[in-house]
From TrEMBL:
Protein name according to UniProt: Flocculation-associated PEP-CTERM protein PepA
Cleavable signal peptide: 1-23
All copies of domain Ice-binding protein C-terminal, residue ranges: 246-266
Gene encoding the protein: pepA
Pfam families named in the record: PEP-CTERM
Source species taxonomy: Bacteria, Pseudomonadati, Pseudomonadota, Betaproteobacteria, Burkholderiales
Keywords: Signal
Presence of keyword Kinase: no
Length: 271
């Protein structure tokens, strides 16, 4: 079963209890390889927040959208309990982030109550050993950006999408859930994914993400985001965890999306 998404996702993720494993698999992290500080620890999830900009390009079908964004990870968890910053040192001595691009095919022009299927996805995870990058959130006019400062260590990447859904709920909040391939990056000189994610070996070959927010984190180029051409999504909290080989059945993915949309109708806020 998925872990709680900062309090927001507990109800939605509980819907998967009958079809998913009882816990996310555990992995081991060695933060000392990035910043020289911290303690080797176990975790089963990485928590963070995301900013992305979804756009409809001229010439594409009216229901096809593309997006660019980043996710900034600010902590690890094990059995729904946080791994302290004194142990992990993430967001203290080093930063951890991902950049991604996507394409969506939606049930119609994007707006509240419109659901989408993710048709392509690419992803790279990086470590910022100085924790001194800058992050600019998306606007209607501009994609979100990561201002890189100094050397960065590439940890993992993916351009393999197993399954994905997303959209805007009936009140305009955004949700997205992905299952994608996961490959650790091997650098013969610099610290890399194999140095940072030290166990298991071989490492998990698939990852799950779930991100959700309220309508307060969304700006569109149209009134009430109806038939929007551009959607800027900020303040989106989420979780990343892993799976060895299993790909969730389509019914399970749809159930998770339904649970997330129900969150919007209850106007729950992030904890």
């Amino acid at each position: 079963m998925k872990k709680q998404l900062c309090g927001l996702l507990a109800g939605a993720l509980a819907l998967l209890g009958a079809s998913q494993a009882s816990a996310a698999p555990i992995f081991t992290v060695d933060p000392t390889t990035i910043a020289g500080t911290g303690t080797i620890f176990n975790a089963d999830a990485i928590n963070g927040f995301s900013s992305s900009r979804i756009r409809h390009d001229v010439g594409d079908p009216v229901n096809v959208y593309k997006a660019n964004g980043y996710a900034f990870f600010n902590g690890f968890a094990l059995d729904s309990s946080p791994v302290t910053g004194g142990v992990s040192r993430v967001n203290v001595d080093y930063g951890l982030y991902a950049v991604f691009s996507q394409q969506f095919t939606c049930t119609g022009p994007l707006g509240p109550g419109v659901n989408c299927t993710v048709s392509s996805f690419s992803f790279e995870m990086w470590a910022d050993p100085g924790n001194d990058n800058t992050y600019s959130q998306s606007t209607v006019a501009l994609d979100p950006t990561v201002g890189v400062n100094g050397i960065q260590y590439k940890l993992a990447s993916s351009n393999v999408l197993n399954a994905g859904i997303g959209g805007l709920d009936a009140l305009g909040g955004a949700f997205q859930n992905l299952n994608f391939g996961w490959t650790l990056y091997d650098d013969p000189v610099n610290p890399d994914g194999y140095d940072f994610f030290t166990d298991p070996r071989p490492f998990y070959n698939a990852a799950f993400t779930a991100f959700n927010n309220t309508s307060q984190g969304i700006i569109c180029d149209t009134a009430n985001c109806v038939a929007a051409n551009v959607v800027a999504i900020n303040s989106e909290t989420g979780i990343l965890d892993f799976n060895g080989n299993a790909i969730p059945e389509p019914g399970s993915i749809a159930l998770l999306g339904l649970g997330l949309m129900l969150l919007g109708t209850q106007r729950l806020r992030r904890s």
